[in-house]
Each structure stands twice: as C-alpha cells, then as structure tokens.
Amino acid sequence: MNSGFFITVEGGEGAGKTSAIEAMMQTARELGCEALSTREPGGFPLRSRSAISSWIKAIRPWMPVRRLYCTLTARRQHLAEKVIPALEAGKVVICDRFIDSNLAYQGHARGLGIDDVFAINRFAIGSRMPDLTFFMDVRPEIGLARINADKSREVNRLDLESLAFHQKVREGYLLVASRFPERIVRIDAEQELEAVLRQIQEVMNQKLTGRI
Predict the structure, then answer these.
(1) Which residues contact 12 (CB under 8 A, 6 or more apart)?
(2) What's the whole-model pTM score?
(3) Handedness of CA 78, 83, 89, 94 (dihedral sign)
C-alpha cells in the first residue's frame, strides 16, 4: 500500500463490533493489505487493556469530565506508540472505538456537549482522524437483549446503565454520523450477521482497492 489506512468501529452495547472487526481483518488481508487490530483503551504503559480499564473505572462515575481526560491520556499514548507507527508502515489499522465514542457517550449522553468534547479530543489526536468509521447501529433494547442472552460475556458498567442512557448514546452516534458523512458509514447491525458482514466487505473493497 502507498500509505496506511485508519478504520474505526463504533456502536452501542451489543452492536456486534467484535464479529465485524474479525471480518474486516480477513477482508483487508484478502485484499493484500497488512492489517493490525487494536482497541481502546490501549497502548498505555500499564500494558494490559484490563489494567487500563480498571484505572479508568476507578474514576467516580459522577465525574464525567475527569473520566474523559483519563481516556484521552490513554488515547494519546495509544496513537503514539501503536496506531501511528503502524500507519506509517503502510498498514491498515482497525480500532475498536475512538473519538466518536467520546462524542456519543460523554458529549451527548453525559451532557458535556459534542462540540466541547470534540475540541478537547483534538489536543489528544491532533489531525489524526479516522479515514473510515463503521457505525454499527442497533436499537438499545435489541443490543442489551443480546448481551443478556450471552452468559459467557463479562458484564461491564455500561451494561448496567438505564435504557434511557443507551438511547441517548444512540442519539449521539446518529448526530455524529450526520456531522461526518464523508467518513462514517452506518451499518444496520440488526440484520442477520451474514448481511452485516457483506455490507462491510463491500465498503472495504471500495475504499481499499487501488491503495495496494
């Protein structure tokens, strides 16, 4: 490839991001691209994602601004140590969550303001916005039902939020998608998995073909 390509995957709880990312990695490799899968929070010196998550969770839930800044600290280092070097090496980087999660969760659902959260994020990411973002869109009641049906999945704090909160998150994602239509592709994640993966593959074929 002539240069790297940065893909992010967003969506509420139970949207099926994990299955989508596995399919994206396979598609990228079939197209002859060297691909790297990563996720946020990650890349912090604490090394393990679970340690970083525990560190962020320790911030009191009623202090969303402090939580946001902790997340941005991890994001900056993740970019510097993992994402940017891979992009400079010409790889396709597929990241589970990035700036749009902050815009939807903290900016809209937590009430900090999408514009303000975006401005704060620019200090962490500079000009390194994703080249392509897949928004895995699912109604919260369906996503949460999927989570509750999966007994092998570890329950996290977001799973325990109210349905009203998750509805606000989805509203936030839809607002963000309307602001960045040039990079955000909405995927109807309520479809059968085969249809979801086919749609993702079609978009990736279009975006990556010719960059090899």
Answers:
(1) 138, 140, 143, 166, 169, 170, 173
(2) 0.87
(3) positive
